[in-house]
């Protein structure tokens, strides 16, 4: 038999191993109602994981949950507001009550509110942004960590290249929150390493989600955004989801405290405001 034909016989086995790579792993994904979080939830489900989807929009969560169920097991859907401490505790409680463990935590949920030093709203924008982009991550990590220690699990935090450069003055609260998240990722990785828990971050550039719509940047289009980057494109959510999956898998067992940039070359040049 020709060797190329032999490879086709192996494909079903390769696909099976890939699908089962997260079999019975319990994976919490915040911000799972759309964008990167939704793509990650669906991908984890197709890989055999027991996915816990967290988000605020019930109708969007339901649609994504249906996609997950078509490719794998039906997920546990938790409608929650990450700015609410009681909701964060409920996420962990409901997950453990349902599945008895936590293997992977994907802190993906985030928000952006305009605010500048001279605009008069900097403190309000800062407080609301930090509550979701950082404080919620710290709180959820602290509550999930004891369970991750038991499973030797891991955490993936979704940051942004905005944490490494100020894209625009009005984005200051968002940039500060992501810079702080990067440092929290490193600090948590150092503390949890001795317990066998890995913590990593991903810093995307613009990803084609509902982010522009949610922040009210009506003057910006994806075409305009794409042209500002060296590769002349913006990423699709599935690209980032694949990177999340890799970092959460045993293939990345030697990686912790790292920040993976996927920005189509954005950090290589100054991007005009």
TrEMBL record:
Pfam families: adh_short_C2 (PF13561). One of its GO terms (molecular function) is oxidoreductase activity. Keywords: Membrane, Oxidoreductase, Transmembrane, Transmembrane helix. The keyword Lipid metabolism does not apply. It comes from the Eukaryota. The chain crosses the membrane at residues 26-46. PANTHER family: EG:BACR7A4.14 PROTEIN-RELATED (PTHR43975:SF2), ZGC:101858 (PTHR43975). This is Uncharacterized oxidoreductase SSP0419-like. It comes from Galleria mellonella (Greater wax moth). The lineage of its organism: Eukaryota, Metazoa, Ecdysozoa, Arthropoda, Hexapoda.
């Amino acid at each position: 038999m020709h060797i190329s034909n032999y490879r086709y016989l192996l494909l079903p086995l390769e696909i099976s191993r890939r699908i089962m790579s997260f079999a019975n792993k319990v994976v919490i994904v915040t911000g799972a109602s759309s964008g990167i979080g939704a793509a990650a939830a669906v991908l984890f489900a197709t890989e055999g994981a027991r996915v816990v989807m967290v988000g605020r929009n019930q109708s969007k969560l339901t649609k994504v949950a249906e996609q997950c169920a078509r490719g794998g097991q039906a997920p546990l859907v938790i409608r929650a507001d990450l700015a609410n401490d009681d909701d964060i505790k409920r996420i962990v409680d409901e997950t453990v009550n349902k599945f008895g463990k936590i293997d992977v935590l994907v802190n993906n949920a985030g928000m952006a509110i305009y605010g500048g030093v001279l605009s008069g709203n900097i403190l309000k924008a800062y407080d609301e942004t930090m509550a979701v982009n950082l404080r919620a991550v710290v709180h959820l990590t602290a509550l999930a960590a004891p369970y991750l220690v038991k499973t030797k699990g891991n955490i993936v935090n979704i940051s942004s290249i905005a944490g490494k450069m100020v894209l625009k003055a009005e984005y200051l609260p968002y940039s500060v929150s992501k810079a702080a998240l990067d440092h929290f990722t490193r600090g948590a990785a150092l503390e949890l390493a001795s317990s066998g828990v890995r913590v990593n971050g991903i810093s995307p550039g613009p990803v084609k989600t509902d982010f522009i719509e949610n922040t009210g940047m009506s003057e910006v289009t994806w075409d305009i955004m794409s042209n500002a980057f060296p590769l002349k494109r913006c990423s699709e959510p599935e690209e980032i989801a694949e990177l999340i999956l890799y970092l959460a898998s045993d293939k990345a067992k030697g990686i912790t405290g790292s920040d993976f940039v996927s920005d189509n070359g954005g950090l290589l040049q100054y991007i005009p405001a």
